[in-house]
Amino acid sequence: MASAQFLVSGKITDQQTGEILPGATVTIQNLAISTMSNAAGKYTFKNIKSGNYTVAVSYLGYKTGQKEITVSSNARLDFALIRSTNVTEEVTVSATRASANSPTAFTNLTKKDIDKNNSGRGFEYLLEQTPSTVVTSNAGAGVGYTSIRIRGSDPTRINVTLNGIPMNDAEDQGVYFVDLPDLASSVDNIQVQRGVGTSTNGAGAFGASINIQTTTRRDSAYTEYNGSAGSYGTVKNTINLGTGLLDGHFSFDGRLSNMTSDGYIDRSASTLRSYFLSGAYYGKNSVLRLNVFGGYEQTHQAWDGVPEDSVKFGNRKYNELGYIESTGQNYKNQTDNYNQNYYQLLYNKQISPQLSFSGALHYTHGYGYYEEYRNNDALSDYQITPVTVGGTVISSTDLVRRLWLNNDFYGATYNFNYKPDNKLDLTVGGAYNEYKGRHYNNIEWTQQSTDIPPDYEYSRNSAKKTDFNLFSRAEYRLGDVLLYGDVQYRHIGYSFLGYDEALRNVQQQVGLNFFNPKAGITYQVTDNSNVYASIAIGNHEPNRSDFVNSSPSSRPKAENLKDLELGYRTSQSNFSAGINGFYMLYKNQLVLTGALDDVGEAIRTNIKDSYRAGVEGNARVNITQQLYWLINATISTNKVKNFNQVLFDENYNPVNFPYQKTDIAYSPNFTGASTISYQPIKNAEIAFISKYVSQQYLDNTSSKDRALPKYFVNDVRLNYNFSIKGVKNIGIGLLINNVFSAKYQSDGATYPDVEGGKVANYNYWFVQAPINFLASLNLKF
């Protein structure tokens, strides 16, 4: 009997109406396995050994159901769920997320997944094991500036929302999680969508969307300490506090975090601090939550990487930024400094059993600068008149400058969800956001006397961007078929200081209108598997540099993407898997060329035709109750057609290098990830984690002299949890990164030119640390 295996199945319905509830999440908690109820509301777990289990069912808008079951033969366990008297906060982000059977490729991460991997490294490392993902660290040790690419797309093409509110910078469109250090400690769940995905707020998604939801309701009071320490002087301390639910209506949560690291690269130290405060009121049919949170970062500049020559000579840590030519020393305050504070007011309302509303008001203020040492700069570049000292005309000098940014971002988001029955799920929503950025630059010190006042401001300009969108999304069930439709209209207005036709710096205006339709279909093949297909169109505006460093005659066009996805998903009790094929066809994709525009700045240019095509696969295999294997892999081809690179010779004459068909920069043809987890005893885990990334190119020429070599890295994660009197949980962990000390670089940059009639390559690598560790301690009270 102990070795026999049985079926556990059942049906999920509404207790009051008896209606079936498709798409409910059913979990056997003891085994940590889940499945979804099918179109008929039924679920099945296969190959369950005899024993005692706890089965839980969750469904949006309903109270979680939970039952105990003793399995000694095939068993049936039905659930009749009760509608929740309190609105669940999942409504806050549901408008921008894919549902269980949506015809798009996505990965969900729960709080348990997040906590298991939240050892102190950058936020992006939480997502490193998801399909088609590459993560890198400027400092080489995972702390400070970290970054992510999904399907070869960098953060400027990855839409990131926090509680449905855009996080991407409105002007350069990047996302800087370093400005919110230890955000992971206040996150409840994450969804990563690959491709165009569903309609969302903020810039259009060209590679992926990352949708983050922060702290939700916890009914019991808690105090929690999380600390970690390890290689390269890395130390993190975090305290979380919460009141639980007070008087059945109120809750308050708070967090303080502090982190320091010396970094692996020379002079790449980080000092990071953050806080998170949240208060909520729970009414019978509504939730009102105020989040106030922010962060401060000071990072020594390592954002140029290590010169290739230094790596070849064995110095993998050399940082040339801040080098003082006159003394041969390094400038100690070559740093980036930034503060960012967020304010979010979130409101959810269950208007009727069929209709709900979710809205948010938000405001973000950011300010800071980076400071750098400049060797022998011309005074004319700073609008300074040369001075004569002792009969000598001083026209250049070493100097220290600060480049400032002070910005405000605010707006409102809203959506209505209408679900009259189990067939139709309709969402209508939109957002209006404004951004105001003030860019100004100061000189702090000059080596030569220049007669300028202290903190001399030599340039200033302002920008304003408005972003308005409306969207409507519907899912409709016809038996075993789910029909999906999604349409979005987006208007962008951008005012910036740029060049006119006469090359005068004047305020410019640009207006863009985008229409982004999506359609798809999902067919339920069996109770536990489905096949889906979709087509989506996305549009993406140029960034600040594209506009500022061009004139009306050379201004770039917006990018367009047609994304086709076809996939299959299955979920069994001991096995779940998915395979997804994609074809992403770009028009007017913006890529760097090496050329200078009509105002003398490096430019990106529109390439008429380029594409990405590939297959993603992922699986989870529960080999035994103690051993499971997570694995994913992506095989792809990523091509640019008719690319013309322009390089410059010693006399600054342009030299053209035409290419017919080449690889898109930073787009590996193969990525793979594996996690093998074993629980030798209760509450203990040993995990062996692997990541493989094939060769990438640093530009769009497929030149082997400008290529990032393939790499294969392995980590080990150890966790053990226990409790003693007075302490609910004591968790100790050890993360050993790069256990085999592979010498690799996960990112880079290249600056080729023409010297003596031949191409000379100047490559820079973001080298990653050899074997290193982070030990962690978690205390819950």
From TrEMBL:
Domain TonB-dependent receptor plug: 101-208
Naturally occurring in which organism (per UniProt): Mucilaginibacter corticis
UniProt xrefs under PANTHER family: FERRICHROME IRON RECEPTOR-RELATED, FERRICHROME OUTER MEMBRANE TRANSPORTER_PHAGE RECEPTOR
Name of the protein this chain belongs to: TonB-dependent receptor
Residues annotated as domain TonB-dependent receptor-like beta-barrel: 288-738
Origin superkingdom: Bacteria
TM region(s), chain numbering: none
One of the record's GO molecular function terms: siderophore uptake transmembrane transporter activity
